[in-house]
TrEMBL record:
The lineage of its organism: Bacteria, Pseudomonadati, Spirochaetota, Spirochaetia, Leptospirales. It catalyses: IMP + diphosphate = hypoxanthine + 5-phospho-alpha-D-ribose 1-diphosphate; GMP + diphosphate = guanine + 5-phospho-alpha-D-ribose 1-diphosphate. NCBIfam families: HGPRTase (TIGR01203). This is Hypoxanthine phosphoribosyltransferase. GO terms for molecular function: glycosyltransferase activity. Belongs to the purine/pyrimidine phosphoribosyltransferase family. It is an enzyme of class 2 (transferase).
Amino acid sequence: MKNDALNYNNIPFQALFSEEMIFSRVKELGLQIANDYQGKNPVFVCVLRGGIYFFSDLTKAVPILVELDFIQARSYLGTESTGNVELIKDLDSDIEGRDVLIVEDIVDTGRTLKFLISHILSKKPKSLEVASLLFKEGGEEDVGYPIKYIGWNIGKEFVIGYGLDYDGKFRNLPGVFLYSEE
Ligand code: 5GP
């Protein structure tokens, strides 16, 4: 696949979730979340970088007062089997005693999320919930924490777009696509 073949009207990947599908699912999740946090002033935490579009759309779809913060972690290179994760960027705000919602792009093995949950819980929030646009089958066991808001459950395929990359590319595709080596 050549980069210059990438064209929003002619994307050479199979679409899994279109922009329209994502828009309407994010609206639904937003209303559900707004309902659950009625009268509260939660902190929504964007997991960089994959979560940017979901975070951006979801926070606008939640008609309550929210505060925004950002966190970033990555798996140690070459240690997939041990699953070590390191923090690259911590939260800027003090979340002690606050209602916190982590906003993730995708949960695969769940290792990244498990790490982030334990890190954030150590800061003593009043409550902690998770929203993930996508959830790959088999992940929840590894997370060991309920994921309250899920856009869609998917199979084990590798997906790109709407924040998700392959080798740093394709994040800005407007929908979610199945990646294939064409
Ligand atoms: P986990 O720690 O749950 O195995 O994976 C966490 C991270 O791996 C995700 O936040 C995401 O950055 C990346 N990842 C997992 N599955 C996929 C996928 O299908 N596509 C892309 N682009 N990234 C993925």
